[in-house]
Amino acid sequence: MEEYSEKALPPPPRKRFYKNKRYWIICGVLSAIITLVVVLLAVFVFFPKIAQDIMNKSGISVNTAEISFVPPSSSINAKRQDTDMNTTFYMIMSSKLTNTGPFAADIKFHNPIDVFYNDTLLLGSITLPNTHVAHGGGLLDATTPFLIANTTLFAQFAKEMLAQETFTWRMKGKLDITALSRTATVNLDKNIVLQGNYNYLNVGMNGFPNVTITNFNLPGNAPGGGITVELGTILVSPSPIGVQLGTIALQIGYNGVMLGKVTSENVTLVQGENNLMLKGTLVPQKDPANLDKIGVLFSSYVAGKMSNTTAKGLSCAPDGSHPIGWLSEGFQSVQLNVGLGLPQPMNIIQGVNMGQLAMVFNADTPYAPVTNAPAVTADYSIPFGFNLDITEVSQELKLAMANGSGEFAAISVPPVPAQSNQTSGKLQFAMNQIPITAIPGKEALFNDFVYSLSASEKYSFLVGGQVVTKTVTPIGNLTLSGITFQVPTSLQGLQFLNSTATTVNSVDVIGGTHQSLVLAINVSMSNPSDFSIAAGDVSFAFSSGGQKLGDVVLNNLDLKRGVNTVAATSTFDPKSSEVGTHLLSSFVTGQNNDVNIQGFEGSTPVASLVKALSVIDIKTTLPGLKSTLIQKSKLAVDKDSASTGIVHVQVAIANPFSAALKITSVVSSVTYKNVIDVGIINQDLANNPIAIDGHTTGMSDMLDMAMNVDPTAVANLMRVLAVDANLDTKPLDALYGMGGFHVDNQQDVQPDPGLFADFDLSKFVVQAMKVLKADLALESGLQVDDYSTKLTFAQQGVAVETDSSVVSLIPIVGQPIVQKIVDGAKLSFTSVILSSPTDQNFKVQMAGSITDAGPMAAEIAFPQPLTVSWQERVLGTVSMAAIKTKANAGADFKVLGDFTISDQAAMGDFAGFMINNDGFEWDIRTENVAVTALGVTFSNITMAKKVSLSGAKGFRDAVTINSFDLPSNDPKGGITMTAATSITNPSQVGFILSGAGFNAYYGDVLLGPLASDGTANFPPQAAAKLNMRGRLLRQSSQHGLDAVNKVFSNYLQGKDTPLTIVGDYGSGPKGQVGWLTKGFKAIKIENVILPGPKTPPTLIPSIKMQDLQIDFVKSAYAPPTGSTRVEAQVKNPFGFPLGVSSLTMDVTASYNGKDMAELKIPNQKATTSKSGLVTTQFSNVPFSSFDNAHNTFEEYLTAVTSKGNVKFGLRGTSNAVAATAIGAIPLSGIGFDVETALEGFNNFDGKTKILSLSIAGGTSEHILVKLSISMNNPSHITITLGDMQLSTIMNEYRAAVGDVFLRGITIKPGNNQFNAEMHMGGSNEKALKQLLSNYMTGAKVPLTVTGSQASTQIPSLKNALATVKLDTSMQGITDKLVKSTSVKATGKVIFDKKATTTIVLRNPLDTPFSIHSIEAEVYTTVGSDHFKVGHIDYNLPKPFTVPAKSEATTGDWPVNVDANAGQLLKLLGAKDLKVDLTQNVSVTVGGPSGFASVMYYYQNSVPTNLDFKLF
Questions:
Q1: CA 1489 to chain centre
Q2: Pick from 516, 676, 989, 1389: CA 20 to 30 A from residue 203's CA?
Q3: Span 1083-1105, mean pLDDT?
Q4: 1244 and 1280 in contact (C-beta within 8 Å)?
Q5: Are residues 996 and 1016 in contact, defined by beta-carbon separation less than 8 angstroms?
C-alpha cells in the first residue's frame, strides 16, 4: 500500500474525498481485493481449523447395527474361511452424519478406526468407507469386520450390552475432509448415537426385561428320563443392535430349582419382538423339597396363576455347533425372568359320576349324612403328553343346584388312593364314611336336594371345588393342587318308591295298645335309584281313601338298590273313622282294599329328610282274610221268652291272628234269608269276654238275643220255616186268620175243627226250627291287648243248632181278637193345664178323645189309675173316669184329675224335656183294662198308648227383650239390670205358677239373675208379657271377664248380643217346687237378643305415639317396632266408672290414604287419667308391611327420613281391660280410625361432623380411612339400620371420592357418634389427587355425604336412604412430611447444573406410603433475594417406603440446579438454610399393593444442609 501511495497524485486540497468519482472506483477495486484475500486466507490458512471444528460439532447417529458371524458376500473377506470368529465378527451399520457444516465435502477415513468402551477401554477396530456430506448432513453405511482387540474386555462389554439399559461406544481415528478444493486431515473422536426405543446413548438390551411365554407344552416323556418341554417365547429387544446368536442354550429354573435345559436354533436378535421356540427337557428330581416346589409351579399353572420362572443363558453358537467364547460369556450374564401362567384355570375335571352311593342319615347330624361311594369316577383331561399317574386325591367339594340357586353342601374328602387311566381320561377313587355337610344357612337348599333325589327319576346338580392330587411323573412324584372345577352330574332318584308297585305280602295282628292295633306287615318295595339310603326309624301314615288310619314304622330303614323285603310295624286305629271301620270289616270278610303309605312332617327325626319323606305316597293293596270268623251257632229258648223276648245264642269263633282276641260286646241283627228279622244280639261282655288265643277257635258262653217277638213276625218266620221244612201249613194259616194275622203267602183258611185233628203244634214248631240258618250283620266289641274297637261285618248262612225249647215261642201269637181291638184304639189330648204344683202332686185338666175303638159299642173302664211314663220312666199315676164309646165313633172327653208324682227326678227331667223340645210322648199303660163288648168282659187286657203333645220347643225365638237398662251399680254388688220381655208358649201344656226365675248367660258365663216381677202365667199355645228385674254379677275369672268384654264390645260396636237365658226355678203356692225347678233349670233359651245401640259410640277419638323404636336389620318389611309411650284418648259411653288398665291393638297404618302396614300389639299395661287419657307402650312388635303395599311403605319411610313431621293414619281395633263394678272387663273389638303424626329424621339436619380421621391402609382400589363421625337425629325415633354405605362427594369437583361404610348402626334420638370406614377412591383422579393433597397439607375440604339405592341392602330403606344428603368437611393434618434435606454438590455444579439430595421423610399416617416418582421445585430466600434453587424430576428405580408413624431417609436423588453462579455463591455463605418445596409425588398408600395416586404437596422452611466440595 505504501508503494501504491507513492505513485498516486496528491488530492485537490479543497474537494472532499467522497465527492471524487475516482475515489469510488478505487474503493470498489480495493473491496474486491480485500474480499479475495479474506477468502484465500479462509481456504488456505484457516480451513484445517474450520474442518476440525465442524467435525467436533458434527454427530454420528447409528440407525441400525447388526453383528453377524457370516462374512458378507460382497466383502473382500468373504473368501476367507479361516477367520477366527472369537476375534472377528462382521458389523453391518446404517448411520447418519449431522451438523457437517454449510459446504459439500468428501470424507475419507484413515482406517482402521478404533472403538472404545467407557472412553478408555479399546474394544477393537472397524473399517469405514468413504462418504459425502452436503447441506449439513450425509449417510454412512458400512459393512465392516470388527477386529476384537481384547476378547476379555469384549466379553465384559457383551455382558453389559446384554444386561444393561445403556452403553457408550467412542470411535477414535483420523479422516480427510475435502471441500472447496482443499483437503484437511482432522481427528475423529466421537460418541456413536443409536436411535433406539430409549433416549439414551447406545441403547443396550437391559437383560431383556420384557419376555413373554406364548406357549407352554410338555409333549411327552424324554427318552433319557424327564419330560420334554416346549416354550413358545417372545423376547423383546429394546436395542437397535442386532446380534446373530445361532443356537442358544438356556437353563430354566423356578424358585431356586434347576428345571432343565432348553435350546433354540437360528436365533438372530433384532430390535423389537423375537419369536423363539425353546425346546428341551425337564430333568428328574430327587430332592423332595425340589419336587414340592415343582408341584407348586405346576399347580399354579393349572390354577391359572402366574409363576415367576427364570432362564439363564448358557452358550451361543452362531454356526449351530461351535460356541463363541466372548459371546457365550456375555450371554451367560442374561437371566430372563419370565411369568409362566394361564389367563384362567385349566379345565381338567370335565365330568363326575358319583357311582353307587350309600347314604346314612342321623337325627343328631341331619345335615351331614355319611356317604360311601366305592367308585367315584371323574372324567379328566391333561393337555400334556407325558405320563402322569394319579395315585391319591383329596378334595374340598361343593354341591350346587343346577338351576343357579347356589351352593348348598360341602364334601371334604381326605387323601384317598386313586386309580387313573390317562388314555381314557378316567380317574376313580372311593369315598368312605365321608359326610355330605350342608353349608350353614343353606339347609333349605339341602332339603331341596334330598327332596329332589327322592322325587326324581334322574336328578341333576352341580359338583365342583378344589382337588389336590399326588402324581407319579417322569421327573418324580408331584403334588398338584389348585385344580378347580364345577361340572354337572346326576343320580337316578327314588321316584318316591313308586317306580314299581309295592306289594303287601302278609298282614298279621300281633298286639294292641290303648291307641291302636299293632300289625306286622311284610312288604316288598323297589329302590330304583343309584344310592342306598339308611334313614333310621321312619314313620309313615297308614291311610285309605284319604283318611289316616295309623302309622307304619320301619325300624332302621335301610333301602338297598333294587328290591327290598321290609318288615314293618304298623298301628291301625279302625275306630277313628268310618274308613277305618270299613277297612277292618272288609278285611275280615276277605275283601282286598286299596291303601296308602304316606309320609308326613313327623315321618323322620332327621330334619334333612323331612321334606322328602313327608310327601311319600305309596299306593298298594291290603289283601283280605281267606277264612271266615264265625264257624257255627246254637239257639236256646227260655220258658218266659215269649214274654221277655229273650233267647240265648252260642257261637264258635276262629282267630286267624297271632294276637289273642277278646270279644267284649256283640251287637248283631239276625235275619233269615236276609229278609226275615229274627232278632238282635246286643250284649256287653266286658266283664266276661269271649277269649280266643292266636290261631285257635273258641266257643262263647250263651249270649242273649232280643228276639223279634212281634206276633206277625214270629208267625211269618214260623210259616217260612215250615215251608222250607216241607211241612203242611193249612192248620197254621187257619190259626193266623183267627188272630188277624196276615203273613206272606198265607192262605185264607176258615177255622175248621177238622184241621186240628192229630195236629201237634209243638212238634210242628220244633221241626220247622231245625232248618234255621242265621244271616248276621255283626258289630262286635273287639279287644286285642289294650286296644278295643268295634268290628263290623256281615256273614251269611251260619248254621243254627236248635232243640225242643223253641216251643216256648208259641204264646207269642195268643189272645189275638181282644188285644187287637184294644190295640187298635187311639187315645189323644188337645191340651193339658198344670196348676197348684207341689213336690208331691198337682191339679190337671185334660181334654182329648178316643177313636178307632171297634165296630161295636163298648165301655172302657180303668179299675186302677193309669201309669204315665215318659221315655220309659214312670212319672206317676193319674185317675181317670170310665169312657163310653159308640160303634165306629169313639168318644170326646174333658176331665179333671189328680196327678200323683211317683218319681220327682223323672218328673223334673220330663219337665225339662217338655220345655226344651218340639214335642213329647206319654206312655199311658195299664195291665188291667176291662173291656165290655157284646155282653162279654175281657179282663187283664193290656192297654199301652202313646200320647203325643207339642212341647215348648225350648222357647226358641219365643223370648224378646224389648228393652234393657243398666241404670246404676247394684246395692248387692255388680250393676242393676232391668228388662221388658214378651214370651210365647208354643206347647199344648200350660202352667200357672206363682213365680219363675232365670239366669242370663253369654256363652257359658253367667252374667246375672233375672226373675219375673210377680205371677208367671204361661197359657198353652199363647203369648204373655213378663217384666224382669236382676243384676250383672261381678266376674272373678278371666273367662267371665272375656264374656263381659264381648257383651260390652258388641254394644260399643253397635252390635246386638245373643244371650242364653237359663231357667233357675219355678214356684207354686208353697214356694219353689223341686221337680218344677229342675225342669226350669233345663230351660236354655239361646239367641235371645240383647239389642245394641243404633249408632256405635266412639270410644277412641285420638292416638299418638310419642316415640318409636324400629329394627330393620331383622326384617325389611316387618321390622320389630316399639314405643315407650303411646297415648289414646278414651270417651266413656257408660254411666258407671270406667278405667283402662291394659289393652291390645290391631292397627292398620296408612299413608296418603293407602294402607301400608299393620301392628299387632299384644296385651300391654296401661294407665288412665281422670280425663280419660290412656297411656301404654309396646316393644318388639313387627311393623308388617302388606305384600301389595311395599311401595307405600317405602314412600312413608322416605318421608320419615327426609321430612321433619309426617302424618299418617291408624285404623283398627283394640281390646282393653276396663275396671268396673263387675270386675276388670276386657273390651274387645273397639274400633278406631284416626290421623296422627310423627317427627321425622329431617335428613338428620342435613349435616354430619367428622370427629377424627386416620388413613389406615390401602388397596389397589382405594385408600382405607378410619373415621369417627357424629350426626344428629332430631326425631324421637330409634332406628336400627345395620350396615350403611354412603357416597362422599368433593364439592369443589362435584365428584365422588369414596364411599363411607358404617357397620351395625342404630341411630338414636339426639347426637349419635359412629365409627366408620371411608374407602377413598373413584374415577376422578384429579379430585382424588386434590383431596389427598389437601389432607396432607392441612387444608379443610368441604364434602357432601349422600345416600343412594346402594346405601343399604334392606330393600324397604333403599329409597329412604337415597334421600340422605349431609354436609361435612374434612380437616387435613398439619404434621410435616419433610423433616429435613441434605444437598451434595461439587464445583462442577456451576457448569453441569447437577447435584444430589437426601431427604428425611416423616409418615404421620397409620399406614406406610411408598414414593415412585417425584417432580419438585425448590425455592429459598437468602437475604432479600428469593430465587429458585433447582428442581427434581426423578423416577425412582424402586419404590421408597416410609413405614407408618415413622421416619425414613431417602437415597441420593438427582437435582437439576436452576440457580445461577451468583445465587449459588449466596447459598454457600447462608446460615440456617431453609428451602420451600412444591412437588407432585407419585405414591402408593397402604403397602406394595396399596392405592396409587399422584399427590401435590408443598412445605415451607424445610431445614436444609448444604454439603459442597470443590472437587
A1: 36
A2: 1389
A3: 85
A4: no
A5: yes
